[in-house]
Write a structure and sequence with these properties.
heterotrimer; A mainly alpha (363); B alpha/beta (358); C alpha+beta (509); B: 358 residues; alpha/beta; GMP Synthetase, Chain A, domain 3; 2 domains; eight-stranded mixed sheet; four-stranded mixed sheet; globular; C: 509 residues; alpha+beta; five-stranded antiparallel sheet
Chain lengths: 363, 358, 509
């Protein structure tokens, strides 16, 4: 049933760190602070920690299935649900990855429209991005992994500037700590998990890693690093903005970059937005690669044509849906389905899978 | 085939290039100063645009418009200028005192939301008519906006004024238990001068701190490292000038959120820079000088805080400190009790050096 | 009538579209071969009579060392009183003498500068004596990869001299030379060098197989080979490193790389290579590691500077005026206020002017070239600023960027760097800073897709191999260079034994 992937297409286990981390840090980090502070106020950074821990557990569940199966989501689906239902679920998963990529692309173009070029010509930028994505993915998984690697390494200089606004902040805003009810914290945790979406790509790309079992360490480290980035950004943001002020700020991280000034470059957020293309781009590539790979594994189609189909669809979809309302509904339903995929479907699959395995062993 | 394809793509991309509005640096006007007066409930905006001439000199060009909304002002000004006007390099926005006491938050909120405007833009209140000031200013061969901003920056650097900018204004405007303040400017002998600080309650200017009281304000607001205090010592019949090295501010809060006791204890470390009563007597009198300073500062800070309590203004963010302390702090109750809250100050001056000869 | 025309057209089309190969000549006998050769003036074919009969001597005089012919070959043949080929073979005081009747081989040898001796005119059997004349440059100091310190030898056009230069630096039996012939008409000798037991067998096979599959008529230089066996022939990036320094070749052979020497070319190719290696000069190894690392960092910086400086200027001035520091605004506006062109046009004009100067300087003889450079640089630059065609700020940027691009030690990579800033300029004009990042992403993906002899081009950055970073952007001291690069997957990984860490001595002990 399974043919092992030739060695020259594999990437080393350490790359799992970059793949996972780059999937988690995307467009969300530019403005997640307002959403998570809705319920738990300035205690919301605790919620990030909580959701970070829950992500670690989910990732562990995924790995425990993958290690046993030594395959990917498609083979797990087939084992648990059989050929037809399994194939159906895999298709849904593929489309989920596809929509994930599309929303990230759409949101980034929106950031560009708001912050840099209000009258940017969307069809052309979109075209250029999709061309770039096609060029990347057609180079195979190694190139996708390479892009993920550079998408973490190159923009990492921005982390230093994250702490630049601290002198303008007030530590008092964070106090008193734990002044919100547990339900509020959990509500914020739900909002925070939306930023952590993306670890599900491991379900598809797992067979492409060398030292598969060892890679869990790196993947978990990737999650840990994302949690660190999200938490520290949230803390700096909460110090920088007073609470009502944050409610009026949509892209809090970008607004924070506005304060950074250097003798050689005065407005740092422009550099950050442009560099963000390098953060967003691997994100889209990985999801679209996963989407096309999942379809290929399920139906044995040529991945190249699946990819072209997906790219064309996303191009057309992006052009047709210009209405902000529809886009917002779409984006929030994608993140919701991501939430359910992680917290409902994954544990369910985990239980079902292990029951199935155990039953087979008893036989 | 591949080459042809990529060529086509290039052509498409190129034809796309006409779609973004270009803002070529030398073909636009950059506003560096925006002044807003109130003329019979209409807003009167005066914009200053530096014109850089080929010989290397700068000339300031002024444009005035009247209207109710920012957009209207923009439109009217664009009718007067040869190049499109952009706000991305705005240095300072000034509001007349009359305008400030009526509130200008809608206008500044436009600034806050405009991504091309820096968070470091200075805001200031001007005592007088700004249009008149701009049209009669005597700054030669210098960008007026940068000039005014530098006056404020220099004062912040020297810790005469506390840090202010667009972001910090909104931080304390929106923040619970604190009120914003802005530098207050005026004109003296035809030159711009810092008059003090304009205090706001919510969005409206209610009071001002004059420049001779700025030191007291500074001691209460930030942890000074450069401030300088000179006071009279009646017993020694001398004057002494003390420079700061370090300030340590602590807020002790006791009681309950409905009847809190707040004590601001401020430890100052300083050096005697000048003493008019003879060098020899300095060393003997250090303790006395310290006591005198403590007494004086305690009295003055107490006076300042009490007067703000009466007006219900909280530029020092005492409410914010209380909020950080009490879990059941509530904005509304605080506003009610604030004038009656028992706030005390305790100053502890420590003079570490006196004999350093410069 | 019409049909005929159509048929004619079809025939014409067929004639043009179908490859028309020159028929390969097969010679039935040696006399037929000579008959063909005689059509050329420089073919010599004559009879010598000695006491016992006649001997036929034939050679191409422009290929044969006449000294050798007259000093060693002719006297022996003339004084020789034996007639058989074996006797001639035994008495000629030259090694490498062969008797054969294989016409194909005779043809090859004849064209390779050998003297053919027959005893009987019609017989196909003959003696082949190698008497190739060797003319060419003397070994001289390197010009392209000049270094202040270190050896002052550079390769020349002769493959044997070049092999000698390398071989004498690697006195080892493991050092292997594999020779092949490439090019249907040129029959160029290509030698593949590697050190057995170090170089990865897979790499060697890849190289041999790729050279073997070259189908080309006339291979004149090593750069032909680079282009013919490159992994991606549509990439502007060189995928094999070329060098003219024998010391560099011998050093990398010891690292486990493979070198190819091509006859007629003073450039030796090295592979598999990676992107970073193109920015390392061999002089780096002659200097202290701190200094060498600093120079490498400067070189890397200058690459980035030369690619990004002008595009960033265009992007910022066209779209992002907010970024410009307030104190710089007046300088920029003043310098640009009289200029009628958009920043992109201004930049393109200046960049093209610089490219013109460079190209003119490269085509002209050295001394004139220098003058042109100075005259062009100073006169045109100043004049264009004064005429108000370009701004002086941009002039500084463009000149610095050009200067920075010269720091790249490998000429081919320098050319690439020169070229790739034009797409960046274009993208900067279209989308400002975003365009630069987009173009950078395209470049990045392209580099990620590239391979050099099947090994990733961006190694050791991606795939990240931390131990290999010891000799890339910075060069660590020799003591930490004890292992060969992981990327090459060498068969023996240890270069030398790392000295046992010296026990830290106490003060004054």
């Amino acid at each position: 049933m399974k043919t092992p992937i030739p060695d020259r297409f594999l990437v080393s286990a350490g790359i799992a760190f970059f793949l996972i981390h780059s999937m988690q840090i995307g467009i969300g980090i530019l403005g997640y602070q307002r959403d998570i502070a809705m319920a738990a106020g300035y205690d919301a950074w605790i919620s990030i920690l909580i959701s970070g821990i829950s992500i670690h557990i989910i990732l562990w569940m995924m790995y425990s299935m993958l290690n046993k199966e030594n395959g990917d989501l498609i083979s797990i689906h087939q084992r648990v649900f059989g050929k037809w239902i399994g194939g159906f679920l895999s298709t849904i998963a593929a489309f989920y990855f596809f929509f994930l990529g599309v929303t990230v692309l759409r949101s980034y173009i929106e950031v560009l429209q708001v912050w840099m070029f209000p009258e940017i010509n969307v069809p052309f930028v979109l075209g250029a991005f999709l061309l770039l994505i096609y060029y990347t993915i057609s180079g195979g998984f190694r190139v996708v992994a390479g892009v993920a690697f550079f998408g973490v390494i190159i923009p990492s200089f921005l982390i230093v500037f994250l702490f630049y606004p601290v002198p303008f902040g007030e530590l008092d805003y964070l106090r008193p700590i734990m002044n919100h009810s547990v339900t509020d914290l959990l509500k914020s945790t739900k909002a925070a998990t939306l930023s952590f979406l993306g670890i599900e790509v491991i379900l598809i790309l797992y067979p492409f890693l060398k030292n598969k079992e060892k890679s869990q360490k790196w993947a978990q480290l990737g999650v840990l690093f994302s949690t660190f980035i999200y938490t520290s950004t949230a803390i700096v943001t909460f110090m920088y903005f007073s609470q009502t002020q944050l409610e009026h700020t949509v892209w809090a991280t970008l607004s924070m970059f506005k304060i950074i000034e250097f003798p050689f470059v005065e407005r740092f957020e422009y550099i950050a937005i442009a560099t963000w293309a390098l953060v967003v781009f691997p994100n889209i590539c990985t999801s679209l690669w996963c989407a096309s790979r999942a379809i290929k594994r399920t139906y044995n189609f040529q991945q190249r044509w699946v990819l072209i189909f997906f790219l064309l669809t996303s191009y057309i979809a992006n052009l047709i849906f210009k209405d902000r309302e529809i886009i917002n509904v779409f984006i929030s339903s994608i993140s919701k389905s991501g939430f359910y995929m992680l917290y409902v479907y994954t544990p369910l699959l985990f239980i079902l899978y292990h029951l199935k395995i155990r039953r087979r062993h008893k036989k | 085939m591949k080459q042809v394809l990529s060529l086509i793509v290039c052509v498409i991309l190129l034809s796309g290039c006409t779609t973004i509005e270009k803002e070529v640096l030398d073909e636009i006007y950059l506003v560096t100063l925006a002044g807003y007066d109130l003329e019979d409930d209409k807003i009167q905006a005066t914009l200053v645009v530096p014109i850089y001439q080929t010989e290397g000199t700068v000339r300031n060009e002024f444009y005035t418009a009247e209207g109710y909304l920012n957009q209207e002002l923009d439109k009217e000004i664009s009718l007067q200028t040869p190049n499109p006007v952009f706000p991305g390099k705005l240095e300072i926005a000034m509001f007349s005192e009359e305008f400030a006491s009526k509130g200008f938050i809608e206008l500044t909120d436009v600034y806050r939301r405009d991504p091309s405007i820096s968070a470091n833009v200075r805001l200031a209140v001007y005592d007088g008519n700004i249009k008149e000031f701009i049209y009669n200013q005597q700054v030669q061969n210098m960008d007026l906006g940068m000039h005014v901003a530098k006056i404020i920056e220099q004062a912040i650097e020297a810790e005469v004024l506390p840090k202010t900018n667009l972001h910090l204004f909104f931080q304390s405007y929106y923040g619970e238990g604190e009120d914003p303040f802005l530098p207050l400017l005026t004109r003296k002998n035809g030159k711009l001068k810092i008059k003090g600080i304009a205090l706001f309650k919510g969005e409206k200017m209610v009071d001002q701190v004059l420049d001779d009281r700025l030191y007291i304000f500074g001691v209460l607001h930030n942890e000074l490292t450069k401030g300088r205090l000179s006071i009279e010592l009646p017993k020694q019949n001398a004057r002494v000038s003390i420079g700061h090295v370090k300030t340590n501010k602590k807020v002790h809060i006791t009681g309950t959120s409905s009847s809190p006791n707040i004590k601001l204890s401020i430890d100052l470390t300083g050096t005697i820079d000048e003493y008019s009563g003879g060098r020899k007597r300095v060393d003997k009198n250090i303790k006395k000088i310290e006591n005198r300073v403590n007494q004086y500062l305690e009295k003055e800070t107490q006076k300042m805080i009490n007067s703000y309590q009466e007006q219900g203004v909280d530029p020092f963010g005492i409410g914010k400190e209380a909020k950080a302390h009490f879990r059941d702090w509530d904005s509304k109750t605080w506003q009610e009790i604030y004038p009656q809250v028992n706030i005390q100050t305790e100053i502890n001056m420590d003079i570490v050096q006196s004999g350093v000869i410069r | 009538m019409r049909w005929e025309r159509i048929v004619l057209m079809i025939n014409w089309w067929k004639k043009w579209t179908q490859p028309n190969e020159q028929p390969k000549q097969e010679f039935k006998s040696i006399s037929a071969l000579f008959e063909q050769a005689k059509k050329s003036k420089d073919f010599v074919h004559y009879k010598i009579n000695n006491e016992h009969g006649s001997v036929w001597i034939s050679y191409i005089k422009t290929l044969v060392d006449t000294n050798m012919l007259q000093r060693d070959i002719l006297p022996t043949i003339q004084s020789n009183n034996k007639q058989s080929l074996e006797e001639i073979k035994g008495t000629v005081p030259i090694g490498n003498v062969k008797i054969t009747d294989d016409i194909e081989e005779i043809k090859k040898k004849l064209l390779g500068g050998s003297v053919i001796i027959q005893v009987k005119d019609q017989s196909n059997k003959c003696v082949i004596i190698k008497a190739q004349s060797k003319s060419g440059r003397e070994v001289a100091a390197p010009e392209i990869e000049f270094s202040v310190l270190g050896p002052k030898e550079a390769f020349v056009e002769s493959i044997d001299t070049n092999l000698h230069l390398i071989r004498k630096r690697i006195p080892s039996l493991q050092f292997t030379v594999k020779e092949m012939k490439v090019g249907t008409t040129s029959q160029t000798r290509v030698a593949v060098l590697y050190v057995e037991g170090i170089a990865n067998q897979e790499n060697i096979n890849t190289v041999l197989q790729r050279i073997d599959s070259i189908d080309f008529d006339h291979v004149t230089d090593s750069s032909f080979i680079t282009q013919l066996i490159a992994d991606d022939q549509n990439s502007p990036f060189p995928q094999l490193l070329d060098t003219e320094r024998p010391d560099r070749v011998s050093a990398v052979l010891n690292e486990g790389k493979i070198a190819f020497v091509i006859d007629g070319s003073p450039q030796v190719l090295i592979g598999p290579t990676n992107f970073i290696e193109f920015f390392s000069s061999f002089e780096d190894y002659f200097l202290n590691w701190h200094i060498a690392s600093a120079f490498r960092l400067i070189r890397m910086f200058s690459v980035f500077f030369s690619i990004f400086a002008t595009p960033v200027y265009v992007a910022v001035l066209t779209y992002h005026y907010e970024l410009i520091p307030k104190d710089l605004v007046s300088t920029l506006v003043t310098s640009r206020s009289a200029i009628p062109f958009a920043p992109i046009l201004e930049a393109l004009i200046l960049e093209l002017a610089i490219e013109l100067l460079r190209e003119a300087g490269a085509r002209l003889p050295t001394k004139v070239g220098q003058t042109i450079g100075i005259v062009g640089g100073i006169v045109i630059g100043t004049a264009s600023v004064e005429a108000g065609l370009t701004s002086n700020v941009l002039l500084i940027i463009v000149a610095l960027a050009a200067l920075a691009s010269f720091t790249t030690p490998v000429y081919k990579m320098g050319n690439t760097i020169r070229l790739i800033r034009f797409p960046f300029l274009l993208f900067a004009q279209i989308w400002g800073l975003l365009g630069i990042v987009l173009c950078f992403s395209f470049l990045l993906v392209h580099l990620l897709r590239l391979q050099s002899l099947g090994r990733p081009y961006l190694e050791p950055i991606f795939p990240p191999r931390i131990p290999d970073l010891k000799d890339t952007i910075i060069r660590l001291p020799f003591s930490s260079q004890s292992l060969r690069p992981l990327n090459l997957q060498t068969e023996s990984t240890v270069r030398f034994k790392k000295k046992k860490a010296k026990k830290k001595k106490d003060i004054d002990e």
